[in-house]
Amino acid sequence: MVETKQERFPDYPIFKGLQRPLEFFGLQGRYIYWAAATAGGAVAGFILGYCIFGFVAGLVLLVLAVAVGGVLIVMKQRKGLHSKKSDNGIFIYAYSKKV
Questions:
Q1: 0.90 cut: is pTM over it?
Q2: What are the beta bridge partners of residue 58?
Q3: Is residue 72's pLDDT more than 70?
Q4: CA 49 – CA 45 distance, rounded (Å)
Q5: Does residue 14 lie in a domain region?
Q6: CA dist 47 to 1, 33, 44, 62, Å?
């Protein structure tokens, strides 16, 4: 009996999306964590503001924290997932120790 290649090595489906960044509600990669931190900070700010100043002040802190965090996330994400600070100019590296 002759065994074919198909019988010896069956094909299995491979998930092709492994090299893509994680995405959740339009947020990609590290910005998911930024959004979670913004939401957590906004809730903590609301609780603190509510306990110290009252409901309206807590609500203002909540809205302010969510708005500022959302704007920062959108601005950074538009620059790209791998945006880093790039310095422009001429740099001279001097040795501090002589050999």
A1: no
A2: none
A3: yes
A4: 6
A5: no
A6: 75, 21, 5, 9
Instruction: For residue 57, give its domain range.
Output: 24-77
Q: Is 57 helix (H, G, I), strand (E, B) or coil?
A: helix
Give the separation between CA 17 and CA 3, rounded to whole angstroms.
33
Closest CA to 31 of 85, 83, 81, 71: 81
Report how many domains make up the chain: 1
Whether 29 contacts 44, CB under 8 Å: no
Say what the pLDDT of residue 58 is. Answer: 93
> Hey, how many other C-beta atoms are within 10 angstroms of the C-beta on 62?
20
Asked whether residue 9 is assigned to any structural domain, the reply reads no
Show Cβ contacts of residue 31 under 8 Å, excluding neighbours closer than 6 positions: 73, 76, 77, 81
